[in-house]
Structure formats: C-alpha cells, structure tokens
Design a protein that fits this description.
This protein is α/β, with parallel strands linked by helices. The chain is built from ten helices and 13 strands. It has one domain: Ribokinase (UDP-N-acetylmuramoyl-L-alanine:D-glutamate ligase, 3-Layer(aba) Sandwich), CATH 3.40.1190. The protein has a nine-stranded mixed β-sheet, sandwiched between helices.
Amino acid sequence: MSYKVLALGEVLWDMLPSGKQLGGAPANFTFQCRSLGADAGLVTRIGDDELGREVLARFRTLTLPTDTVQVDPKAPTGTVEVKLDEARQPHYTIRSDVAWDRIEATDLARARAAAADAVCFGSLAQRDEPSRSSIRALIRASRPETLRIFDVNLRAPFIDRDVIEESLRLANALKLNDQELPALATMFGLPGGTREVITALADRFGLSLVALTRGPAGSLLMSGGFWSDHPGVSVTVSDTVGAGDAFTAALVVGLLAGRSLDAINEHASKVAAYVCSQPGGTPALPDDLKVLIPHSPEVGS
C-alpha cells in the first residue's frame, strides 16, 4: 500500500558553491519519501517571484505535488547561503522574513493532515508567526494514531526552547543528530550518556521512538526499550546536504511498513550515505535503494 505522508515547513533554494539547489529539510524529506514509494506532499509557501516559479517548475520535474504549495503575494521565496568547510560539512546563512514564515493552515492543508499516516515537522519553520501557529494546528488536525515525527533541525540563531518543548509534546517520535542531542540534554537538564539522554527524552515527552544520526559513526534507534545501533556506511562525501532528511524519509517509510528497527536502520543508513555521495539534497535514488529491506520478525537488536 502507499502510505500518506505530509511534511510541514520550509522550501527554499540552497545557494551552494556548485550552484543553486532546491532545499529545505521538509522538501528534501518529501522527495525521498516519494522515491521510496510513499504518497508524500509538502505544505509550504513560496513567493510570487521568479525563484518561486522555479520552485514550482522543479517540483514538477521531481514529480512532487504542488497543490499544497502556497503562494505569498508579498514575501519572497526563501534562500540560504551554504558554505562547506574542509570536512564538506554545510554552514548556513538563512534569510529571514520570507514566504515560508507565512504558512497558513488552509482547509486543504487540514484535510491532508487529517488523512496522513505520518506528519513530519521541524523547528526552523516555527521561528515566526503565522507559520508557528499554522504548523501546530496542522499537527493537531492529524489522527491520534498518526506518526508525528519531530525532526529537530536546529539552525542558529533560530533556536527557541519553547518551540522545541511544544514540538516534543506534539510529536510521538523524534529524530535528531549528534550535535542536537547534547543541545537538548543541556536545554532540558538531562544528565548521562547518549542512551540515558535518549531514554529520558522518550520518557519525559511520551515518545514511541527516538532516532539519532551520528554522521560517519552511524545511527542509533530506540523504541519500546529496544535498541538498534548501526555503524554507518563508508562513502566518499560530495556534501552532506539532505542526508539527514533522506534518513528520516527512510525511517518514516520503514516504520509505516512495520519493519524491524535493525532493518529500518540498515536501509536508512544506506539511503543517507548515497545522498552524501551526491551533490545537493534531492538526488534520485538508485533502484536498489528504493526497495525496502524485507520484513524481519526481530523487533530490535
């Protein structure tokens, strides 16, 4: 079956050293969910400008739906200047007061949220109103059984404790990386090592799953007291833009398909590694990565 997945948040142009690439974590996530067979869409907002028209054209090229892409009559389409350091890690300068800060919870968006099997959202698109209230309203419009995954995506200077805490309370699953985990541990006063902090976050906010990505050191999943620890996949890195979003996409599709933690972790790691090997956040996946790893009777490792 085709699972219905809805992402909420920013779409923008990443201005990379190699040229302009479609970006924004929710957009990258949506593309890879569709690559993996999900019926995925994105509630976002663009400007009534040339960059916005290029977003729509790019969406059509990528066969992404455009009906929930709102057009703002005044605010410009979002852009981000991306610089890569010596380790090919991206550093972002994110433009403020852009169209995706003005996302609306339209009737169509609410209907899509109510029908979704999974909703994915982050903290960046909640940096300002009205997007903050709209995103929260759309999450609340989802069904109680819907997978609501919060992909933290901390981006300075847009880090707000209240936004993060409310997002954790709205979510039932959490995805974060090895830089964001200690930030949340400090933010919420959670002592201990990696597994202790993950367990504390899950207990405090009633999360059914926590996923931690650790770059070349692999990834760690925890659900219901079971753990899956993957060592990572060796790859020649082009850039890491969109790798975490691809991991989240494979994670969500695997969870909806009822795969084991180990199978999900293995597949998501391979998908993320492939994206690292390609420029930009929306490379087409090879056919062998579009096929989910067969179901395993093992719940976890």
